[in-house]
Amino acid sequence: MGKPASAATGRIAMKRYATIFALLLIAAAVGVWLATRPGPATESADPREPTPPSATSIQAIDTPPPPPAPQTLLDIVREKHPRFPTTQPLDFPVKFAESARLKLDLPLYIDPRGDLWITHPNADPISKAMTSAATQQTHIVPVPVAYVRWLADSVGTVRPWVVTRTDGTTGGFEVIGPGGARRPLPRADYLWLHAMDWQDATLVPTPTGVSVLRFQGELREQHFDFLAGGYLDRTPLPSPATQPTADAIDHPIPQLVEDTRGILAFIPWDGHHPGSTRIARYIDGEWQLIPAESEGEQVVHLIPLLDGSLIRLVRAGDGRIRLQLGSLDATIDVPRDRILALVDQLSDFDQQKRDAAMDALRQYGQGIWPILEEIVDDQPPEARIRIRQLLKDRIIPTLAGMSIIEDRLEVVSRQPDRTVLLYAPQGISRRSERDELSVVSPAWITTGPTTGIRLLDPRMTYEMNPPQAALQWVRGDWISCDRARGPRIWVGNEYLPLLDEQHAAYRFVQGVDRAGRWLFVREAPGPRSLPPRDVLLVDRHLPDPTPRLPVWVWSIPEGQVGWDRNGWPAMRSGGAYALEESAWRSLDVEKDGFFNDPSGAPSMTLPATSPAGDPALGRPLLVTPEGQAWYGGNDRLIVVNADASRIEWILPPSAAGEATPHLVQTADGRLYLYNQAGRIVRIAPTPGEDEPFTVEAVFTRHIPNVREIRRLWLDPAGRIILMADDQEMAILFPEGRIPRPIALLMPAGVEEEQW
After folding, report:
1. 616 in a domain, yes or no?
2. Can you give the pTM of this predicted structure?
3. Is residue 431 included in any domain, yes or no?
4. Exposure check for the chain: N or C terminus, fewer CB within 10 A?
């Protein structure tokens, strides 16, 4: 009897196995069909970019939807700062002191065009951003940006080529074209912080050389390597301490200098590390070597001149710096008419024009000497003196007429835009247009593509020491990056702080975009660095969210203050005038009215038909259009809603007061309470939290110190008007800034004093 039962069991098991096997075959076939069936063409998958949600994820009810991709800088600001006011960017920039200061923990990069690139993990794919990049100024992408090159396509539209790392943080680089196609770059050691665009190419240093890259069409690279060519001296220099440079590069990084026809490349000798023994020049589509002027010369810096001449700053064996003047090309084409026009200007009646002409002539070298020798004897005395000063460079070269005393000169800093700061500890000597000798000691000199060769104002640097000096040239201004005082800008005769003490640690300027937004960072980036994440952004098109309450106080000793029939603040002294939204208006007292007695103000009692309010609480401080009635104001606030429900909130000690309370509510729902002499308290509702309200700020600056004020109200422009007495009134600006039209009406210095 057991055998039949066992056989039956076996047959059932065989049928189950066959069924399971058949199901597996069907599943495999379906999988193959799904994998091989044709679908819509898409970009190649990239692990750094968001992928479309699967059907499973769409159906999953427990998985929260991903946050929406930010489309604007304001979206990111509100994400990082949820309490930021729901305002739109202003149509015109506010003053720097009134600008929003926003800390962002995202990589930000400003490209050569002045566009701002923000890396955000939830951003749309970069291919979407690049389709509209040509017409935008701010670009939000999911990948960190190392460099952007803008190139015109076949129809003349300028489009971006974005360089990023292949894995986001380390490894090699790749370039993303306008259509989203990705191509890896040949090297992984590019120093993009010091890259520059030139003609249709991008030149970028590497630790031991320079690469010329062309992105359009077939990717091409022409790399010149000083080390591979045997032109990089690796012998350590005798010094007290050999200090490695940033990012573990054991010698100065290659420098790029544009001349009249090409690009010069060299590795400078910095006194601690050796540099290159030759100068390379990229010209006519290829790299060439420039012969040394002397055996074993140690080039510290190169200064090309407009006529094809070249000033070499060469370190001698004793550490002194010699100036060598030579020519880059066998033939020099000098604009004779331009030189003659500048020479004529040397005799101009205007001192500034004479100095400007001399500065312009000093941008040329030996190419103009034959012209000057030919005409010098025919010039007026002033011009003759200056021409002979120029011709003295034939014997002893100078830096734009400045002779380096004792040949002591050192490089203090090199900036990414190729501006170089030099320091002469013994100073410089130079001659005036009257051939009088003067000395500046010590002397700070700058040279660069936008500064030219220029002596810095000694007032800028009198308290600076070269090892600790940190000066930046930013869009035509000098910024002192003081460790103790933060970044300060030179304004002609003094430094003014750019940031307050709270943000002074962000002392270096990362850049300024073409919308006028400043980026500050804590430390100067190294040559290998990608854009830092800890950035302070100062946006002049966004108001500062820091609670501020600017005040304009009117004091009319021989008159009166008050308001007109429409609630505009007014004054009467001889004539009567009302301050409307952006201008003064002469008042016709008979027609427009002039009031300064609170009994003439609009009644604060509730409408007879309103169910809100509580007569037992007395006269309300404020009645809103929604029917809310507000009471108390000294130790608590009581709100009676239109449906008779009420909220009672005990004021914190910082907001409690003993004076007769006054209360107004601005359009954004904030409350401004006056219940103590010389003080205004700003209160904000906090729906959904344990406490119904919170004290956002307490303002005392310029608030009239009067225990019993006459009236507090909102004028039609939304300004808070505080009438202290019959002759004093304060205009308060709850938006935190004084509108420009009003600022122009204020006495000189009053607006600036607010900040």
Report:
1. yes
2. 0.74
3. no
4. N
